[in-house]
Here is the input.
Amino acid sequence: MLDINKIRSDFPILSRQINGKPLVYFDNGATSQKPTVVIEAIAKYYEEINANIHRGVHRLSQLATDAYEQSREKIRAHLNAALAHEVLFTSGTTFGINLVSNGFASILKPGDEVLVSALEHHSNIVPWQMLCERTGAVLKVIPMNTHGELIISEYEKLLAGNVKLVAVNHISNALGTVNPIKEMIAKAHAAGAAILIDGAQAVPHLKPDVQELDCDFYVFSGHKICGPTGTGILYGKEAWLNKLPPYQGGGEMIKEVSFEKTTYAELPHKFEAGTPNIAGGIVLGTAVDYMNAVGFENIQQQESELLTYGTQKLLEIEGLTIFGTAKEKTSVISFNINGIHPYDIGAILDKMGIAVRTGHHCAQPIMQFFGIPGTVRASFAFYNTKEEIDMLVTAVKKAKMMLS
Ligand SMILES: *Cc1c(COP(=O)(O)O)cnc(C)c1O
Here is the structure.
């Protein structure tokens, strides 16, 4: 069990006030808050070992390089990747997906098919649309049911086509649906397609095992797991990373450069052009350590209690509808109240110190599916409490009275 007071004291921001009220932070789906160990590790890096990596013989450069590579190794172990050079540092999920989609431009032919799902974030839709425009490949969509669950029988039918690549999220940011990705990965492979998993919303709640999943690519952002913004990971199977061309050209990614010809560096450097976010990459390892110290079993238990409690309490409000009622879901509650614009509810909640996200959550096709402009989304983290949910429920009731 979590010592929730101890956990909350790890996050300085949780004790601040907003609009004269204690902050209730329920926008964890957009970004998580940061514990003191992470905040301090950033300062410590700049105070003690700041230098460019992989470039200097001097002591500081070696210290910085070692810390960066140790972090890569830590993340490799966390994901259970077979090889450290299958773990690439990126600036986030968006960058990782663009790196892969750009690489596939040299592989896809006109008439090839790329599958995404009806549940995707824009960053797992638009890069594939751009890829299809460039290559003449065709984008197709795995549909969902009204609970927000993907329809696997339809996925199987689509896989009978000329599918070369599937891109699907592990967990939906807008609805919280947990997709059956292990099964989806096996089916993609059986159909001869590669598969990328957008794990941005999964890594805050669980520890993915990329070898057990057998996915070809797995991407996520550091800032949603207590790490710094501008950090992220692209895991790719070695064979795929060797096959894809580099994404950006520059320093660090080369073996030899002349004006006639350049040869590329080995993995992972081939995909890590230029000076990276060194502090960020190192501190992402600190964040992963922190999450593991809290423990994913504890995280899941706390969050599942919050989800059950929050769902029950919010549904007691007349006229409130929850979007996303999948059997397997994480601690996200997306809702609307009859005839009231989500933005208006969000603005009143903010006055009461409660941070939620309102709008389409970068997933407009999901909103189109339900025929709504957006939702109010409360997304809970392990450091949230039932008392905070009570405050949300009280505030939503008040907002409803004021607005109807
Ligand atoms: C947040 C998120 C992204 C985008 O992540 P960035 O950190 O903005 O690059 C992509 N997919 C999902 C499911 C997300 O939740």
About this structure: The chain has a mean pLDDT of 97. The chain has 14 helices and 17 strands. The pocket of pyridoxal-5'-phosphate is lined by residues 92-94, 121, 123-124, 169, 173, 198, 200-201, 221 (CB under 6 Å). The longest strand covers residues 163-169.
